[in-house]
Write a structure and sequence with these properties.
Blueprint lengths: L5 H15 L1 H17 L2 E12 L16 E5 L2 H9 L5 H4 L3 H6 L3 E7 L2 E9 L2 H7 L12 E9 L8 H15 L4 E7 L3 H8 L4 E11 L2 E8 L5 E2 L3 H5 L1
Parallel strand pairs: 5-6
Antiparallel strand pairs: 1-6, 1-7, 2-3, 3-4, 4-5, 7-8, 7-9
The structure holds coenzyme A.
C-alpha cells in the first residue's frame, strides 16, 4: 500500500484544526488510523443493495441549505478546474482521491459556502470499483451495472439531506448515461446510511461477510433468509 505524502496529510490536519478544532482533528486521526488498519486486517458485515435506475422527482432530496454548488469530477484536470474556481479541493480533503480519479472513479461533490460538504463516488468499471468500494461484491459492468461508495458528509454539514441529494445526483447521472442498475454495500450497523438509502426504495438481497488478514481475503455472500426486501434491511425494520 502506498501512503499519501506526509506533506498532504499535514496540510489536511492543519486545515481540520483551523476549521473544525482539535476534537474533530482527533476524530479524523482515529478514523484515518482505522482506514489504514482496515487495509491490513478487517472483519465486517454489510447489507448488499441494488438500486434500479428510474427517473425521480428531485424535490424531496434537495439539501436543507440556503445554497449549494455541485461539481462532478472525472479527472485531475476537472479537480484542478474546480480548485481554480476557489472551491475546496477534494484531493486535499481525501488524500486517496487523486489515485481514485486516475483509476476512473467519479467524485460527486456538494459545496456549501465554497467548502466541500459532501462527497460520494461512482465506479463505471471494475478498475474504478477498487477505489470506490474495496468489498469484492460482483458488479456486471459489461451488462450496464455500476456501483457507488465512498460516501461522506463533513461533520458540520450532517443532517441537511446532503447524502440523500448526493445519491439522487449519482443515481440520476448513471440513469442518464444509460446504466440500468447500481450496486453498493452498507455496514449492518450504519443506520443513518440505511435510512437514506431507504428513501430510494432499493432491494436488499444479501449480507456480505468480509475478513481480511494481510493479503488473505475471505468474502461470503448469504442471501437474506426470507428473500430480498425493499427499502430497509430486516434489522432496520425491527428498530
Ligand atoms: C452516513 C452519512 C453520509 C449521512 O450523511 P448526511 O448528509 O448527514 O445524511 P442526510 O442528512 O442525507 O440523512 C441522514 C439521515 O439519517 C438520520 N440519522 C443520522 N444519524 C442517525 C443515526 N445514528 N441513527 C438513525 N438515523 C440517523 C438523519 O436523521 C437523517 O434522516 P432524516 O433526513 O429523515 O432526518 C454521514 O453520517 C457520514 O458521513 N458518516 C460517516 C461515513 C459513512 O458512514 N458513510 C456511508 C457509508 S455507506
Amino acid at each position: 500500500m502506498t501512503l499519501p505524502p506526509v506533506r498532504s496529510l499535514t496540510r489536511r490536519a492543519i486545515t481540520i484544526l483551523r476549521t473544525e478544532g482539535s476534537r474533530s482533528l482527533l476524530r479524523h486521526v482515529k478514523s484515518y488510523g482505522g482506514f489504514l488498519v482496515a487495509r491490513v486486517v478487517a472483519c465486517s458485515r454489510s447489507y448488499l443493495y441494488v438500486h434500479r435506475l428510474t427517473q425521480r422527482d428531485e424535490t424531496p432530496y434537495l439539501p436543507r441549505c440556503d445554497s449549494w454548488e455541485i461539481r462532478v469530477i472525472h479527472s485531475d484536470a476537472d479537480a484542478d478546474a474546480v480548485a481554480a474556481e476557489g472551491l475546496e479541493d477534494v484531493r486535499k480533503v481525501f488524500v486517496y482521491s487523486p489515485r481514485a480519479l486516475r483509476h476512473g472513479a467519479i467524485a460527486f461533490c456538494i459545496y456549501v459556502d465554497r467548502a466541500l460538504a459532501h462527497v460520494g463516488w461512482v465506479a463505471l468499471t471494475s478498475e474504478a470499483k477498487k477505489w470506490v468500494d474495496r468489498l469484492p461484491y460482483r458488479v456486471d459492468f459489461d451488462a450496464g451495472e455500476a456501483c457507488t461508495g465512498g460516501t461522506y458528509t463533513m461533520e458540520r454539514f450532517r443532517g441537511r439531506n446532503l447524502m440523500a441529494y448526493g445519491y439522487y445526483l449519482r443515481l440520476e447521472y448513471m440513469r442518464q448515461i444509460g446504466r440500468t442498475l447500481s450496486r453498493n454495500a452498507v455496514l449492518v450497523n450504519n443506520v443513518a446510511s440505511q435510512n437514506v438509502h431507504a428513501r430510494f426504495e432499493p432491494e436488499i438481497h444479501s449480507t456480505g461477510r468480509f475478513i481480511k488478514l494481510l493479503r488473505w481475503n475471505l468474502w461470503k455472500e448469504t442471501p437474506l433468509p426470507g428473500g430480498p426486501v425493499r427499502s430497509l434491511p430486516p434489522r432496520g425494520r425491527s428498530d
